[in-house]
Amino acid sequence: MAVVTLKPTGNFDLTVEAEVITPDNFAGKSAQEIGQLLVWQGPKQYPLANYFEVKGDGADTTEETTITIDGDVSRVKRIGEGMTAGKVLVKGSTGMHAGAEMVGGEIIIEGDTDSWAGMEMKGGLLHIKGNTKDHLGSAYRGSWHGMTGGRIVVDGDAVNQVGGGMSGGEIVIGGSVKHFCGIRINGGLIVVKGDAFRTVGAEMTGGTIVVGGTIERFTPGFIQEDTESDIKFDDIECTGEYKKFTGDYAIPQKGKGTMYVSSVNNECL
After folding, report:
1. What is the value of pTM for the model shown?
2. Domain-embedded: residue 57
3. Is 197 helix (H, G, I), strand (E, B) or coil?
4. How far are the Cα atoms of 4, 69, 147 from residue 54, in angstroms, in the given order?
């Protein structure tokens, strides 16, 4: 396993778009060659070495290449975008689109991420140890297909439209979410261990959503079918008693999704 270390050194007053930061692009290259890869800042492209000190060469293969970003890169977008294998470790926070469209491999972010993390993700693991913002694992605006595979784990909170339009894969939120979690999903799994504010599962036609905390405003269009305890999805365990709902019956599509809601935290439902 070869490790390429990037230490932020440059001027990030304008955000930098660095989709070149993937094991796919670093494999087979020397540290000097990696430093000459081009990134966007505003309307111009500049070498990666303008913004990072590069140490270490890439491995011969993508699978054996690890990238460690040693510092905060909250002004750097698209880290790990489209990667197919290997590993990226960020010792800080990242900007928007981290892990967007990733196909395989592993990204671990020890801080927070901005919006659109794991957008339209197809495979691999994205683990955010802090918080994230809007559109986690969702579809771009104008697209109906969000995340289709892989797993996203957020130890903290997310904000709006988690998993919008997703049709596969898994999203696990250790904290809470705000509005439109699971909007228009037709497959896959979303588990929120904390609270949700409103419109959970709106327009869903498939897939599964689990909320372990309190839903402040429950979405109209769902019908309670049963009560189940200690539900499990492969290695994802949700202990306690849950009310099982199906919906969203407010839209005409025949397919319906499943929502499990903590009984003890939602006694009024």
Report:
1. 0.97
2. no
3. strand
4. 7, 10, 32
Three-state helix/strand/coil letters over 142-176:
CCCCCCCCCEEEECCCCCCCCCCCCEEEEEEECCC
Please check whether residue 167 is in contact with residue 132, taking contact to mean a CB–CB distance below 8 angstroms. no
- Our CA angle for 176, 184, 207, nearest 5°, is 75
- pLDDT tens sequence across 71-119: 999 999 999 999 999 999 999 999 999 999 999 999 999 999 999 999 9
User: Does any domain span residue 251?
Assistant: yes
Q: Residue 57, preceding bond cis, omega within 30 degrees?
A: no
Extract the runs of DSSP E, i.e. beta strands, from the chain: 2-8, 16-17, 38-41, 44-47, 52-55, 65-69, 76-77, 87-90, 106-109, 125-128, 151-154, 167-173, 186-192, 196-198, 206-211, 215-217, 223-233, 236-247, 257-262
Query: Chain centroid to CA 17: how far?
Result: 18
Answer with the residue of higher pLDDT: 11 or 163.
163
**Domain range holding 161?**
115-262
Specify the number of domains making up the chain. Answer: 1
Domain membership flag for residue 256: yes
- Gap between the Cα atoms of 200 and 162, Å rounded: 10
In this structure, is residue 206 part of a structural domain? yes
pLDDT band for position 137 (cuts 50, 70, 90): very high
| Torsions phi, psi for 15 (to 5 deg) | -65, 150
Read off the tokens for 172. Answer: 């696990």
Nearest to 6 by CA among 104, 76, 63, 64: 76
The mean pLDDT of 129-141, rounded to a whole number, is 95
